[in-house]
Amino acid sequence: FGEGKELKELVEITSRLNQKKMNVLITRLDAKKAQALKRRFKKGIYNQRAGVFKLINQKPKILGKGTILIISAGTGDLKVAEEAKETAEFFGNQVECLYDVGVAGLHRLLAHWEKLKSARVLIVVAGMEGALPSVVSGLVDKPVIAVPTSVGYGASFGGLSALLGMLNTCAGGVAVVNIDNGYGAGVVATLINRL
Fold it and tell me: Taking the complete model, does pTM exceed 0.85, yes or no?
């Protein structure tokens, strides 16, 4: 978790892990600190949209038994969806993504029916009223990890509306992580995918 850490602390932590040839994943990292880390660690990769910095010393082995499908309702949710993607890949999963397939245009989601059916675990990221995870869970017989985002108009209360909508779903098989917690969703999906 890079947010709130000083650059000096991030360099120290990354240096220690790098000396042991361990892989490094830093989430919630701003571009300025990421660029400084990239200058210090030439193999570092930064996904600016996700706010994720990775230093890969050993290519992650695919340990997941199937594909994790990450679905975002809208482009406003991509920061969180990309954080989930980077996390799931880091921990050794095959990952596919469907972006901008929210309930406002349900045909966009249904056009990917085969991907929905073949995924082993689904991470569904949505703001506004948070309806998409319920819809997806009603279509598939796989675990759905719902991620509310702080994206929304007026009374979305910084993601609280989406969170409550997801927690109150009547669709079975939905587990909910906290608002904007793409990292948490990626970790839970990894654990499920390894079972």
Answer: yes
Max Cα-Cα span within the chain: 49
Residue 135 tokens, joined: 């819809």
Please report how the helices 160-167 and 132-139 are oriented relative to each other, as an axis angle in degrees rounded to 10: 30
pLDDT tens per residue across span 136-185: 999 999 999 999 999 888 788 999 999 999 999 999 899 999 999 999 99
Q: How far is CA 46 from CA 28, 29, 37, 119, in A?
A: 11, 9, 9, 27
Give the type of residue at 87. T
Cα separation, 137 vs 123, whole angstroms: 10
What is d(CA 83, CA 88) in angstroms, rounded to the nearest whole number? 9
On whether the CB atoms of residues 2 and 53 are closer than 8 A, the answer is: yes
**Which residue in 69, 103, 62, 100 sits closest to 84, CA to CA?**
69
Instruction: Give the alpha-carbon dihedral of 8, 45, 184, 178, to 10 degrees.
Output: 80
Reported as a pLDDT band with limits 50, 70 and 90, residue 44 is very high
The Cα–Cα gap between 89 and 115 comes to 18
